Amino acid sequence: MGIVFETSTWSDALWSGHCKASASARQALSVGSGKQPQFREFATDMHAALYLRHEPQRHGQAPEWATHLLAQAHDLAEWKGLRARCERNGFAAGIACETLLQTLLPLLPEAPKPSQRQPRRRGQHDTPEAGQAPGQREATQPASEDASTVRRALRQAMRQATDAVEEAEASTEAMADAMGIQAGTGPSHAETLHDLEQVRQLWALLKDNPTMRHIADMAGRLQRLGQTHKKCQVTPAVGRIKGITVGGDLDRILPAELAGLRSTNRLHRLSTLGTIMGKRALQYEMQGEESETRGPIIVLLDESGSMRGEAEQWSKAVALALLTTATQQRRAWCVCGFADRVMHSSLVNPGEGTPGTLLDALRMRAEGGTDFDPPLREALRVLAQEPDLRKADIMLITDGEAPLSQEVVDEVNRHRKEQSLHVYVIGIGDIRTNALRPIADALYTVAASPERDSAIVAPLITLVA
User: Tell me, what's the pLDDT at 45?
Assistant: First the structure.
């Protein structure tokens, strides 16, 4: 419950959950409480005013410093825009409220210290001063700040809060979608504390790591490109003719059945149309040949010294887009980071992927040279020993050329022939991948711009979709 508004239990629970997940929010509350004992209740008011659709009912008595700050905020155009972003969105409201509180701390007046109180005479009672309501005696107005200074600081705070919400939502969007996590409400989804807790945990992993935030943002764009490409693909042929059956599919109805629609006899045309609409017309029976559902994937990620910088971010973004797609579809995946040897390996069983496992699997350890034999041998070992990955495809992401022994070429090609293994090579930057050509089902070369290489990137994502 706030000190200005009669906040709802649900809004209070959302703010409490945000503070539990955010150390910086707890720090702001601690600092604010040192200046005003009721600052925590004021923070609850601020969150409720951002989150709830309608402003809550006000208390009869409230400290003037709190009502002053809220009134000044509500009068600004920036407040209306920020509130529109946060309304009924617990994640956004928490981020915005935390940012506002941190920025408003300098505007908070100091509460009088107990030692500053005048001693009471015998028989004297505490009575409010003229124009002061009961309960306001300990609060003071921000006398050192005039109205224009407060409004200017509030505008700046709201701009910062809007930027913080946009950054947080953009950074978590791709991975939240992959995990099936939803923040906020929609036509078919109601906000839950469980969803918000997962989103907050994801943001806690990303917010102090600018590189991973950038990678997650790039991966989100790549996923959207892949989804758009998939929707625009032409549906393949339905298959071969197996026989004749009865139905109403215009694409398959025999020409003789359709001939009645061109008759000069009106009754004949109506009879033919009734036969088709009633799905009683003769049509071809087709037997389609659909490929099996996409299976697990093994990502071999080059982490040699040359991958530092832009190549690192681009390769990780491609890998993250591939892995989040597999995670969303509850498929197993494995990531092997390599240089001149296998640096690390992470395996996730079907349905067990989390934001933490995704980010841990993609932490860069760039060092050393490049050798393709160790990671490919590791991939073949995983295929042989891990039941959930026996039908996996291999995605090798690299920025350089390296030797590949004939022994490994022969072993990989044997698996390609006997077990229908697919190997896709993704080259980052202006490189040659001739050494990998003998084992690759397809080779792609991409630069460092999703916009420029959208025509190349989109098919990459649909490889696992």
Answer: 92
Q: For the chain, state the CA radius of gyration.
A: 31
- Alpha-carbon distance of 308 to 367, in angstroms, equals 9
All residues at 6 or more sequence positions from 215 whose CB lies less than 8 Å from its CB, including other chains: 313, 316, 317, 320, 362
- Distance separating alpha carbons of residues 363 and 375, to the nearest angstrom: 17
Contact (Cβ atoms closer than 8 angstroms) between residue 320 and residue 219: yes
> Looking at residue 158, what is its pLDDT?
92
Strand partners, 427: 398, 445
The pLDDT of residue 186 is above 60: no
Beta-carbon contacts of residue 47 (< 8 Å; ≥ 6 apart): 7, 11, 14, 15, 18, 93, 94, 97
Residue 356: predicted pLDDT: 73
Dump pLDDT digits (tens) for 414-460: 999 988 888 988 887 766 667 888 898 888 777 655 455 555 665 66
SS3 track for 256-319 = HHHHHHHCCCHHHHHHHHHHHHCCCEEEEEEECCCCCCCCCEEEEEECCHHHCCHHHHHHHHHH
CB atoms inside a 10 Å sphere around CB 241 = 11
Rounded CA separation 80/84 (Å): 6
Residue 292 tokens read as: 């099996």
Token pair for 365: 């350890």
Q: Give the per-residue pLDDT at 225.
A: 57
Say how far apart CA 419 and CA 421 lie, in whole Å: 5
Q: Which residues are CB-neighbours of 389 under 8 A, at least 6 positions away?
A: 296, 298, 332, 334, 347, 382, 383
Name every residue whose Cβ is closer than 8 Å to that of residue 34 and which is 6 or more positions away in sequence.
none
Asked if pLDDT for residue 101 goes beyond 70, the answer is yes
